[in-house]
Amino acid sequence: MTISFGNPDRPNSYIGKTVPRPNAGRLVEGRGHYVDDMTLPRMVHVVFVRSPFAHARIKGIEAADALAVKGVLRVFTGADIAKVCTPWVAVLAHLKGLKSPPEHAIAVDRACWVGEPVAAVVATSRAAAEDGAALVEVDFYPLPVTGDMMTALDADTPVLHADMGDNLAFRREHHEGDVDAVMAGAHKVVSARFKTARHTGVTLEPRSILVDWNGAEGQLTAWHATQAPHMIQSVLAQHLGLEEGRVRVICGDVGGSYGIKVHVYPDEVATAAIAKIMGRPVKFIADRLESFTTDIHARDHEIRAKIAVDETGKILAFDIDDWTAIGAYSVYPRTSAIEGNQVVNLCGGPYDFSDYRAKTTVVFQNKTPTCQYRAVGHPIAVAVTEGLVDMAAAELGMDPVAIRRRNMYADDCYPVTSPAKMRFEGLSHHASMDTLVALMDYDGLRLEQAEMRAKGIYRGIGIASFIELTNPSPFMYGIGGARISAQDGCTVRMDPDGSLVALSGVTEQGQGTEAMLSQIVAEGVGVSPSRVRVITGDTQVTPYGGGTWASRGAGIGGEAALQAALALKASILEVAASMLQAQAKALDIRDGKVVDADSGAERLALEELGRIVYFRGDTLPKGLPRELVQTRHFITSEYPFAFTNGVQASYLEVDTDTGIVKLLKHWCVEDCGRIINPQLVDEQIRGGIVQGLGGALYEEIHYDAEGQLLNGSMADYLVPMAGEMPDMVIGHVETPTMESTLGAKGAGEAGTAGAPAAVMNAINDALRGLGAQVTEMPFTPERILRALGKIED
Amino acid sequence: MKASAGGYARARDLSHALDLLADADGMGRVLAGGQSLIAAMNMRLSTGDMLVDISRISDLSGVSVQGRRLRIGALTRHAELGRDALIARHAPLLAQAVNHIAHAAIRNRGTIGGALAHADPAAEFPACVLALDAVLHLEGPEGSREVRAEDFFVDVFETAIAEGEILTAISMPLAEPDEVQMLKEVARRSGDYALAGLCFVRRAGGVRLSVLGAGSTPLLARAAMARLDMEDIGGAVAALRGELNPPSDTQATAAYRRHIAGVLLRRIWEEIGGESA
Ligand SMILES: Cc1cc2nc3c(=O)[nH]c(=O)nc-3n(C[C@H](O)[C@H](O)[C@H](O)COP(=O)(O)OP(=O)(O)OC[C@H]3O[C@@H](n4cnc5c(N)ncnc54)[C@H](O)[C@@H]3O)c2cc1C
């Protein structure tokens, strides 16, 4: 069955429309159901004693005083937990050479970062557990700290994990063509050093897990704020020595994830282990300080990069040397090499050039581990690429839009393979740029900028084109040996009253997955979205799937839902045809009723069909299939990833006396293929842009030389807030992927990918002529004034 | 984290509050709007406090003109100050300050007395009362006493309030007809504590200039004030930079803060029509 997406007046045309989110009212009324809302009989709370040292030997743990606190039941050390829980090693076979030592749920004899769990205190209340935790005496012997990224591989730097031989976790170099020769002969070569700061995701709901071991059933149930219930099921089973089928992971409402909740955290696994040991439900909710010190960090990169161009602005080559420090361990099971790997894959992404060299060097250090966070690697690759393109344009006296138009892949050249060996099925860089230039009135804005400049007001316009990797195939994790599903499934069922229930393997983190699924199923079957109830996040209930990551929910989960819905529609029509003595293909379902496909005349309400099937099946012909439940799965097969593309622009003003940047307006035109729900897509883009703006102007985790995290609070780690956010104008170009009927690619990360680069280019545009340039994020007022040479030390 | 308080009692009136503090064996802690104290308790930076909640003592709240002075009850909330007609007329600096303090939810609960007693050197009100040459009224077991703002701020989070004492009110001269009061600051985001800020008051007696975010206490920039009285803005900026001893932290270095103080002073001077040189 096909759907005429081009016709907005087709029956049941919910795909492509903004329909209300089924869970919005509930969440807004405070009726969300988060892990911390749950209380089970005999439930206890666990609090972790965490290392105050970045690197220390644990010589002994004295728990007597803690155990004397009223309400404290048990204190566990790493050795206690290791008896029931095996350590993990976060490597993947396809990331050649990646190494990481075994990591325990609770450190056994050595703590490697500030915040690493070293003991667990279980009590009848969180407060009592905290009282106890404060009294656990750990005898630490401080060890030398490896903090700095760029010196991590120097001969005199202490090796963090002696068994690993050195501090190198991973290195990959990709070389296409002959970059040195091209650089040597190029008209102009521009080089720069970029830095992106260590970030963390700052979810509104902190990491949360409640685990119950039911020995009588031999089943472990974890209520977990996670993006990937099936992956967690597999991990808990493996490390606690259970069958996968005996672990159930339930994921109710989740208050934001951004990638933070797709990883395996030692304290969460320890919570499961403790539940198994104690035979009681155990709850762990991270507090805000724990979130800052133990949620994964990301984006701590330093890059030296070069671009070569000819006289006409044609890009000849990129040369990228990326370094990143990932903390003390590679994070399980997705590993911490992916971000650097993405930088190698994505630099130069929008441009048609031939000679490319990119290297990433991933090192260990005594800090919180880093891993995948919204738009993994993209903000870095886009900043480096777009920063260089703008610098080259400035060298050549070319307009930033013109140089991009000169170099972007032509809209009719696809499919094409990039020098980074990324395969693009179909992108729309030029159409997107044209739309952007019109939306923002680029020429008008340039005039305004010049007028303001004449008055001593420094405004800048920054452009950033980008590509974004979405809808991953098993090439991302599966081929490396991780039990992470790239496939996803959906079951759609019709109940007697004609309403539908859809069970999906993708998850809802607050981003609107369930809304998207409900409208796809509604259109696929032919009912109103309000007649569809969506269930996600329960490994014993939904089809097996990957969950939420790499912008795959709509593209993968949505296609599975569409196929399941279409299959259910066919089943329903088969029954209806029998009841109505008609041909199934002469019938259709519209707005919950079986109708004549041609005339639209109503023939049979779905509730009547349901009544007959479920209660008077005796009246139907023997042998008539009446399967009003259908399941379909979807996996991409032609391309490893569905790339999307887009372009962003930032307009801002720099106060050259204070260094404060005022964001005036932001635009984004992107192409996520088929848009299922315009409002959801626009708000994903906006939210993503806000996160990108945070990276550009505010967010930075600071450590001192001893590896102490200095700003673990909302007062000191600055997230972007509404007051500083500009108006954002969002536009679209739609190039559906041919891999699916739905044609949807991902939209969740595009905003984050491009915003930092757009802001960087806008600031440098504003400062052009003043001899200042900034390339180290975030662009704090001080960094800007220092670039301007205005600060006397 | 969960707070770990030693106890809680709600005071009926001032003398009850003083009694509760006296009975608390040194662990007594006044609870006003709770916008600094509760946050500290929730991070267990303060534990075991015997909380004496003064927030219901109605006669500690409100603004009045008493003779030639303006009197502000310690429990007057930031939001109330921001919309009070007497404040707007007689101490507009405080109304300006409110716009820079945190966000609506915090302004609705936080009290000026709490902000002054908390004595965060980066907070607005401490620097304001210094510039306004205010007097702080304290009530204790021994009776009442008055402390000039210049003598009130001792160190980071430390004031002249003695054990068992409560700050009851703040008073200050009414603004003169052509008095200038201006607050300017630089913060990373609206509502954040400022990286640096200036409170500028010019009255017949001369200029008063105080600095927030510039050291361990709000600072009265006397050398800069003297230069400003001579209409020497260049000298004032240089003097101001010399007087400051701002912290370096994850938001900015001392050098940046010093620079900003100078920029802000020039901007104030320009705005009030002073000669630039
Ligand atoms: C997110 C956030 C952002 C903020 N941003 C700013 C900002 O930008 N600028 C700013 O200036 N402030 C800011 N604040 C602080 C805010 O202004 C507080 O309200 C204020 O500092 C304390 O007032 P309170 O009435 O809440 O005092 P409480 O928190 O109740 O008490 C604070 C301290 O003062 C003592 N105390 C209170 N009242 C008295 C009294 N009458 N006599 C003796 N001791 C007393 C208490 O014992 C305690 O030690 C912020 C607060 C928060 C939570």
From TrEMBL, chain A:
Under Gene Ontology molecular function, one entry of this record is:
iron ion binding
| Cited InterPro entries | Ald_Oxase/Xan_DH_a/b (IPR000674), Ald_Oxase/Xan_DH_a/b_sf (IPR036856), Ald_Oxase/xanthine_DH-like (IPR016208), AldOxase/xan_DH_MoCoBD1 (IPR008274), AldOxase/xan_DH_MoCoBD2 (IPR046867), AldOxase/xan_DH_Mopterin-bd_sf (IPR037165)
Q: Which UniProt keywords apply?
A: Molybdenum, Oxidoreductase
Aldehyde oxidase/xanthine dehydrogenase a/b hammerhead domain sequence ranges: 29-144
**Gene3D superfamilies given for it?**
Aldehyde oxidase/xanthine dehydrogenase, a/b hammerhead, Aldehyde oxidase/xanthine dehydrogenase, molybdopterin binding domain
What is the species listed in this Swiss-Prot or TrEMBL entry?
Puniceibacterium sediminis
Designated name of the protein: Xanthine dehydrogenase, molybdenum binding subunit apoprotein
Which superkingdom, per the lineage? Bacteria
Task: Output the Pfam families linked to this UniProt entry.
Answer: Ald_Xan_dh_C, MoCoBD_1, MoCoBD_2
From TrEMBL, chain B:
What protein name does the entry list?
A: Carbon-monoxide dehydrogenase medium subunit
UniProt keyword Cell inner membrane, yes or no: no
* Recorded GO MF terms: FAD binding; oxidoreductase activity
Keyword Oxidoreductase present in the record's keywords: the answer is yes
Please give the superkingdom of this protein's source. Answer: Bacteria
Q: Which UniProt keywords apply?
A: FAD, Flavoprotein, Oxidoreductase
Return the InterPro entries for the record. CO_DH_flav_C (IPR005107), CO_DH_flav_C_dom_sf (IPR036683), Diverse_Substr_Oxidored (IPR051312), FAD-bd_PCMH (IPR016166), FAD-bd_PCMH-like_sf (IPR036318), FAD-bd_PCMH_sub1 (IPR016167), FAD-bd_PCMH_sub2 (IPR016169), Mopterin_DH_FAD-bd (IPR002346)
PANTHER family, per database record: XANTHINE DEHYDROGENASE SUBUNIT C-RELATED
SMART domains given in the database record: CO_deh_flav_C (SM01092)
- Boundaries of every FAD-binding PCMH-type domain copy: 1-177
